[in-house]
Amino acid sequence: MQAKLSVVALSVAAALAMAGCGQKEEPKPAAAPAAPAPVAKPEVVVKLGHVAPMTGPQAHLGKDNENGAVLAIEELNAKGLEIGGAKVKFELLAEDDQADPKQGAIVAQKLVDAKVNGVIGHLNSGTTIPASKLYFDAGIPQISGSATNPKYTQQGFKTAFRVMANDVQQGQILGEFAAKQGVKTVAIVDDRTAYGQGLADEFRKAAEAAGIKVVANEYTTDKATDFKAILTKIKSTKPDLVFFGGMDAQGGPMAKQMKELGVKAKFLGGDGVCTPEFMKLGGPAADGNFCSLPGQPLEKLAKGPEFRDKFTKKFGAEIQLYAPYVYDAVMVMADSMKRANSVDPTVYLAEVGKTNYDGVTATIAFDEFGDLKGGAISIYQFKEGKLEFVETLGGAAAEPAAAPVAPAEKK
Fold first, then answer.
1. What Å distances lie between residue 350 and 11, 90, 345, 360, CA to CA?
2. Rounded CA gap, 189 and 393, in Å?
3. For 145-249, where are the E strands, in sequence order?
4. Is residue 15 part of a domain?
């Protein structure tokens, strides 16, 4: 009996085992294919050189220029530009040329060796001109926002451009303005730099053509601060006007010493003295004197007030002189790259000459030499610590700011 039960138990166990083997396991759902990882676009770093005096008497102007370039580059990077199928990041390589021609050539070679995509600067004509040969030899586009000596763009270098009027235009306007003020005699002083001497020479031509007699020609340097010896000589000629070709670091003290010595003549200078620093150094003696700036006043331009607000908010400082022009120079270079769809200097260089850019300071287009077409010059007078606009003479500047719309009359 027990044996039969064992056989039955074994049979049942075997049947159950066979039944279990016959059951099919439910198939697991197939995993969804993984989404392909997004392909990141390559990023290209575009190196722009910027050169200005960051030490010495003109350091405040150099910093002003650099701030203009920094503001432009930050705005370009915020836009996330793509050029040639790659994301572009602009980077500023800033150098100090100390307003010295030899140092200018040294830092220019440094930027060439760094294989920069373009150069903004230099500030001074005296450093810009020798440096421009190095950039030309390397095929690197160079746009200056402040160098005004005509020689810069008359060397035949297809890499050289400027976004402001040159000294031929400025000197002529200043000479004509002096004649309009009834000036009959003038003493001329320059600092012997490419900028100062060049502007003084152009002023002399225009003044003499307008019938003004030059009664004295004196010279100084861009490092001097004591002008009493030459001003004493000038005083004896009793000029109606003293014209100075140079920068504010010399112009301010010169105006102050004119007053101390009892020189009755008015003081007139170009863009190099048209700054807050001139008023600071000249003190009360600055009042009533005149200077000039390329283009129209920022407040009269469509983009001018906005630029001034952005600049002062970011840097906590007022514009000294050339910052808006340097800002435009950076934007023109970037615009040329976009139109060429390349950041390669040998490719986008051809587009720089075809520029038609609506800038802060002007509608920027270049002539066959790389000079700004239709450069205008504005005259200012120093009054109670402020620059007061007098008039704009010469060519066209940027689109003027729209006149405020008068409120509709209530019916």
1. 96, 20, 9, 23
2. 24
3. 160-162, 185-190, 213-219, 241-245
4. no
SS3 259: helix
> Any residues with CB less than 8 A from the CB of 220 and at least 6 apart, and which?
189, 190, 191, 192, 227, 230, 246, 250
Answer yes or no: are the C-beta atoms of 196 and 222 closer than 8 Å: yes
Asked if 90 and 218 sit in the same domain, the reply is: no
Two tokens, residue 378: 């504005």
Q: Would you say residue 9 lies in a domain? A: no
Q: Kindly state whether residues 143 and 211 are assigned to the same domain.
A: no
Strands annotated E in 257-405: 266-269, 290-294, 357-358, 363-364, 376-383, 386-394
Q: How far apart are CA 320 and CA 274, in angstroms?
A: 9
CB distance 293 to 264 below 8 Å: no
Phi-psi region of 349 (alpha: psi -120 to 50; beta: other; left: phi over 0): alpha
Give 226-285 pLDDT, tens digit per residue: 999 999 999 999 999 999 999 999 999 999 999 999 999 999 999 999 999 999 999 999
Distance CA 252, CA 274 (A): 10
379 Cβ partners below 8 Å, 6+ apart? 173, 177, 290, 291, 292, 389, 390, 391, 392, 393
3-class DSSP state of 161: strand
Count up the domains in the chain and report the number.
Answer: 2
If asked whether residues 270 and 305 sit together in one domain, one would say no
Count of beta carbons in the 10 Å neighbourhood of residue 181:
13
pTM of the model: 0.83
d(CA 125, CA 58): 13
Task: State which H helix or E strand residue 82 sits in.
Answer: strand 82-83
Query: What proportions of the chain, in percent to the nearest 5, are helix, strand and coil?
Result: 45, 20, 35
- How confident is the model over 131-154, as pLDDT tens digits? 999 999 999 999 999 999 999 999
Pair 243, 212: CB distance under 8 Å: no
Residue 16 lies in a domain: no
